Amino acid sequence: MEIDTECLVKSYKEFYELLGEENLMKIYDAFKGQQITFPMKMYDKKLVAEKVKKEFKEHNVSDLTRRYGYSQRWLKETCRVNETKKSIQK
Prior knowledge:
Blueprint: H1 10-31, H2 45-55, H3 61-68, H4 72-89
């Protein structure tokens, strides 16, 4: 099916411009009729917390904030809570 780009709804037109016709059709077929909301954060907070607890070192806080989009304060607090839990378990 050839797409008439002049008549596309704004959201589909943006997908068309970003992803091309083939990928637009995949999105259309998979999600037509549904309302989709994209969260402001790309990464899940709980999953990031688990990963950061494993990777956290004082010198890489800036790297982690850039990678995951969470504040340094949140990252430090998340790791502080984890350290407190570890010391309680001992």
